[in-house]
Automatic annotation (TrEMBL):
InterPro entries: METTL16/PsiM, METTL16/RlmF, SAM-dependent_MTases_sf. PANTHER family: RNA N6-ADENOSINE-METHYLTRANSFERASE METTL16, SAM-DEPENDENT METHYLTRANSFERASE. SUPFAM superfamilies: S-adenosyl-L-methionine-dependent methyltransferases. This is U6 small nuclear RNA (adenine-(43)-N(6))-methyltransferase.
Length: 453
């Protein structure tokens, strides 16, 4: 999985450790296979394995108890979160300081109303969700009850003919709609009859267990969303932003043309990339007092690899007198150093020969310290000191505070035993700060304090 494509706040930017999951959850262990290299993997084409993965991740990472029916679409979490986080970014841009509870609509909520339960747990959002399929409707109700989320989410059973009209309370104001439509055209996809020998419609990348009505509809996603846009006309003043996911890039152009005709005042599109699956997102509004923001694509600039990581070899010579040349010992010292720099740390990989942490800096402590050191040195060198003009000092202080308020850098640090007398240190920029340059500065700081002193 190429995690660098994912939304910066997506917890699965760092893929879950399957070994850890297999040890912790017997229901996942059943599907885990050990490769000759010792690596634990699952077969992503096996629906039961993908279902088990989503179930245990929901439990472990979101405290959500979910029972997914065997013959329905399995929601894969990295993609669902990428979409949800994009919606959150859009809302943030449009109305950053809102204090009121966010209320969204999810069209076609599926077997466990995945978007509403994630958003309710993560952000306390409220949802009205619709569903046509009886099994999915019932399972969604059960999911809400099991997780005590009935106060946050209402599921409505609807018919295919009317998605929103008549089902949604139009006296209420909604912040957004979401939709993961049936992507395929039922006329050109899957078996035509029970006697047809072709296999049931499968979404290979989605764990291949979806029922035909979940993933295929007459006219495909273009028709489905066009119908939705027609229905939006009735709701255009009570929903701020409409959004949908799309399974095919080619659907964007006809839908945008339809939106223009329907009188949408602005729209924007994005791409969700996770592993080998790419999906598209489209958002639109009929409001005139704001534009749907065009957010920068979260996409690496160089051939899908993201900014290249910085590598540094910790040799025995560079580590002499500081302790054992082991991944554990070096990481301990690095964590001490990062703590002294007021960074937040989250362990991501914790093997004997390979350890990784994610670090977050709320302020630029490393170059402040360097500045202080430099100032200290300069002052010591000076025989006679000229007092600095007062005004300049005040301005500098203000500037620093302003910078600190917006500064947030996120990075990854990986330590790996490569051979017996050296350890590889790798640092990867994730988000914020001055990009890779900030990571470079932190590496220099570490060299000065831990390795090359
Ligand atoms: N949101 C879920 C499910 C997406 S699959 C997820 O992301 O995993 C699409 C869902 O839309 C299916 O559950 C299907 O039953 C439902 N559906 C199809 N037509 C619909 C309609 N007209 N109104 C509401 N739901 C519909």
């Amino acid at each position: 999985m190429n995690s660098s494509f994912m939304h910066p706040r997506n917890p699965y930017r760092t893929p879950p450790d399957f070994k850890e999951l297999a040890l912790k959850f017997p229901e996942f262990r059943k599907h885990a296979k050990q490769k000759l290299t010792g690596k634990i993997e699952i077969d992503f084409k096996d629906a039961a394995a993908v279902r088990a993965l989503s179930t245990v991740l929901l439990k472990r990472d979101f405290n959500l108890e979910v029972e997914l029916p065997p013959d329905r679409l399995v929601p894969t979490l990295p993609l669902r979160l990428n979409y949800l986080l994009w919606v959150e970014d859009l809302l943030q841009e449009v109305n950053p300081a809102t204090e009121k509870i966010v209320h969204g609509i999810d069209i076609g909520t599926g077997a466990c109303c995945i978007y509403p339960i994630l958003a309710a747990r993560m952000k306390g959002w409220h949802f009205t969700a619709t569903e046509t399929d009886e099994t999915n409707y019932k399972c969604s109700l059960e999911t809400l009850e099991r997780n005590c989320l009935q106060n946050h989410v209402t599921v409505i059973k609807v018919t295919a003919e009317t998605m929103l009209n008549g089902n949604i309370d139009t006296s209420h104001k909604y912040d957004f709609t979401m939709c993961n439509p049936p992507f395929f055209d039922s006329d050109s996809f899957g078996p035509k009859s029970r006697s047809d020998k072709r296999p049931l419609p499968m979404c290979p990348k989605l764990g291949g267990s979806a029922s035909s009505t979940e993933i295929a509809v007459k006219g495909g996603e273009v028709k489905f969303i066009e119908n939705l846009i027609k229905e939006c006309q009735e709701l255009k003043s009570c929903v701020r932003i409409f959004t949908t996911m799309l399974g095919h890039k080619s659907s964007l152009a006809p839908i945008i043309a339809f939106l223009k005709e329907a009188g949408a005042s602005s729209w924007s599109e994005t791409e969700f990339c996770q592993g080998r699956t790419t999906r598209w997102g489209l958002a639109w509004t009929f409001f005139d007092n704001f534009k749907v923001p065009k957010l920068p694509l979260i996409r690496p600039k160089n051939n899908g690899k993201g900014p290249p990581p910085l590598n540094y070899i910790i040799s025995a010579e560079r580590w002499s007198n500081k302790g054992d040349l082991t991944v554990a010992c070096i990481l301990m010292k690095i964590i001490e150093l990062f703590n002294s720099l007021k960074m937040e740390i989250r362990k991501i990989k914790d093997k004997k020969d390979k350890k990784a942490i994610e670090f977050i800096a709320r302020e630029n402590t490393w170059s402040n310290q360097r500045r202080k050191q430099r100032e200290g040195k300069r002052n010591a060198d000076k025989v006679c000191e000229q007092p600095e003009p007062k005004k300049a000092k005040v301005d500098e202080h203000l500037l620093d505070t302003q910078k600190d308020l917006t500064f947030c850098l996120k990075g990854l640090l990986l330590l790996e035993e490569t051979d017996t007398d050296s350890i590889k240190l790798q640092m990867q920029w994730i988000e914020g700060g001055s990009g890779r340059e900030s990571i470079n500065q932190i590496l220099q700081y570490m060299k000065n304090h831990l390795f090359e002193k």
